[in-house]
Amino acid sequence: MSTAINETTKTGQVSDSAAEVYENFFVPALFADWAPRICDAARLSPGERLLDVACGTGLVAREAKSRLGDTGAVTGLDCNDGMLAVAARLAPDIDWKSGVAEDIPFADARFDVVTCQFALMFFDDREKALQEMWRVLRPGGRLVVATWDSLAHSPGYDAMAALLERLFGEKIASALHAPYNLGDCDELIQIFKDAGISDPVIRTRPGLARFPDIEGWVYTDIKGWTLSESINEAQYQRLLGEAKRHLARFTTEDGRVEFSAPAHLVIAEKKES
User: Fold this and answer.
1) Per-residue pLDDT tens over the stretch 98-142
2) For labelling alongside 257, which of 15, 68, 74, 195 has CA 20 to 30 A away?
3) How far apart are CA 77 and CA 11, in angstroms?
């Protein structure tokens, strides 16, 4: 079991059923606020061509399509078939492609904008993935990549990770550490520079995680993430009981869960030749 946990933690991949939970629960809880911010940072114009790398269920791609309209073209790329199936069902008018970020299956300078939301931390070769995004971007085009700030700045998930480690050990808890492993701005910007991306700029923005209640939070984190096939039902019920006792400080008076979840937007413009 530990090998499987380690592999899914590193890649961030989920099962087909988890992809549905991801769209229905994770997207409104964590990601919905960021798609408009990413598209704002990308400064989209009518008629442009956008590639969303590691698109997941297509949140950023759908937001971009709503802004670019019929004159623009949006492509979503992901290596997870379950995510792509959900994306295609929700937005059949977008071009969905299977592929990995380290080997993007498009010609040089194909796109005006390339985006990547909360996936860089999971790539096998981050530098190569960024080089590929830069390669398919035309001169004058814009790259926008979002990563989470450090775990220490997201107190709810810091506490959830600590609870998972206490109950089930470090390997299980590592699934919640993985999304936050590019929170250090100096390390993050160096990856872009090593990839040959000119003048990247980091803009750190506040964010808020929202869940309907503790039970919804636990359900989302376990059933919609890499732990969906690593924690059995008895463990799940134990976690739920402990969470209700030990994570209650993140609930509002009416029982909703809210806590800070800031992120970094790394923005770069490819200079004209």
Assistant:
1) 999 999 999 999 999 999 999 999 999 999 999 999 999 999 999
2) 15
3) 15
Residue 120 structure tokens: 């860089």
Q: Which residues form the domain of 14?
A: 2-269
Helix (H, G, I), strand (E, B) or coil at 48: coil
Domain count, the chain: 1
- Between the CA of residue 56 and those of 12, 124, 136, 236, what are the distances in Å? 11, 17, 19, 25
Q: What is the pLDDT of residue 226?
A: 66
| C-alpha–C-alpha distance, residues 154 and 121, integer Å | 16
Instruction: Using DSSP, state whether 44 is helix, strand or coil.
Output: coil
**Beta-bridge partners for 260:** 208
Q: Which two tokens stand for residue 11?
A: 């890649």
Closest by alpha carbon to 25, among 59, 48, 51? Answer: 59
Structure tokens at 143: 């790259």
For 57, residues 6+ apart whose C-beta sits below 8 A from its C-beta are 19, 22, 23, 27, 83, 86, 87, 90
Q: Residue 10 maps to which CATH number? A: 3.40.50.150
The string of pLDDT tens digits covering residues 191-241 is: 999 999 989 999 999 999 999 999 999 998 888 776 877 899 999 999 999
Cβ atoms 144, 267 nearer than 8 A: yes
| Amino acid in the structure at residue 21 | V
Helix H segments across the chain?
A: 2-11, 16-21, 34-42, 59-68, 81-90, 126-135, 155-168, 170-177, 185-194, 214-223, 233-246
